[in-house]
Amino acid sequence: xxxxxxxxxxxxxxxxxxxxxxxxxxxxxxxxxxxxxxxxxxxxxxxxxxxxxxxxxxxxxxxxxxxxxxxxxxxxxxxxxxxxxxxxxxxxxxxxxxxxxxxxxxxxxxxxxxxxxxxxxxxxxxxxxxxxxxxxxxxxxxxxxxxxxxxxxxxxxxxxxxxxxxxxxxxxxxxxxxxxxxxxxxxxxxxxxxxxxxxxxxxxxxxxxxxxxxxxxxxxxxxxxxxxxxxxxxxxxxxxxxxxxxxxxxxxxxxxxxxxxxxxxxxxxxxxxxxxxxxxxxxxxxxxxxxxxxxxxxxxxxxxxxxxxxxxxxxxxxxxxxxxxxxxxxxxxxxxxxxxxxxxxxxxxxxxxxxxxxxxxxxxxxxxxxxxxxxxxxxxxxxxxxxxxxxxxxxxxxxxxxxxxxxxxxxxxxxxxxxxxxxxxxxxxxxxxxxxxxxxxxxxxxx
Length: 447
What we know:
two-stranded antiparallel ribbon; 13-stranded parallel sheet
């Protein structure tokens, strides 16, 4: 064997590139890595590390245990003969299609578990849906087995010592002990998408700052308004943060975020009912330098209130409003953008609103060409998308607008749905003029 291949660091770099393209993207080629681990002693450890580095579910760990310690798939089980084997209930489905432990784990079982668990660097807990027919193809791990592995007193205090990435999509409180056991100071990426924010979940998230000091990327789903203040301060413990998506934060945390040199993406989620201290916002100003800034708010007024103290130098801005807004409010939002975003830096602007609840109501938000004049100062734009609005614009007016953005590559003004109301007065001649005026245009949508 060549001398370089006897160096484990070189082998780890090589085996990390052993991948395959699947329908879900690029992932490790598990079959190839398995055979590499069997090739020779020099390949064994580096290949096993690469083989176990990223695991989408925990059931693969249980399948490494002895056969009489775990359940087996029922041979020949289909939806046609399902009633012959198990009770046709949610719990029956889960029991049939998910791997379970058949007895308490022994010392040897724990040794086997830890032999592989210590190699895992990325772990995913998928969203659980007992009613889904996809369970037939994704057997997964039964709740009782997950709790036995990670939620019992016998579980190792640190089952995944090298874990760097944790993706939590389960929406139930019963498995929170498993999430708690996976939390460690080795994590650098943590994603928690849970639609249900119980007090136990809020308490757990509120303690992440001290528990995970090395976090570089943190994302969580929108918390309730009552929880924003409790979880806001966790960010102050993270000095190496690069990507953040979470509920809106207070002034102290905003100032900490603005001081972070590595922060590239910031996405704030303002839940309905959340109120900002307007007096405080008027007394301080925070400057950000980012690649991407995003905010989701229930209403335009709440979005503007959060933006009030911010001066943002960002290449991309995404503003999402969860309720339908009238043309006046949207016009106010567009006119205020120059106060918060650097026109010499912003390249992409995406503003979207929810559609009205009554699509037959013709009193829809309608923007005139005058409203768009307020964003002409953003001359570096290459992408502009404004969704769920109606605009009253002619060929001539639209051409005047697009002339301010000669670098435009993607231009979209649309309603995102068919409301049965057409007020745009743009013709095919107008579209042809746009294409001629913007030589870099890749996509054009006006509906």
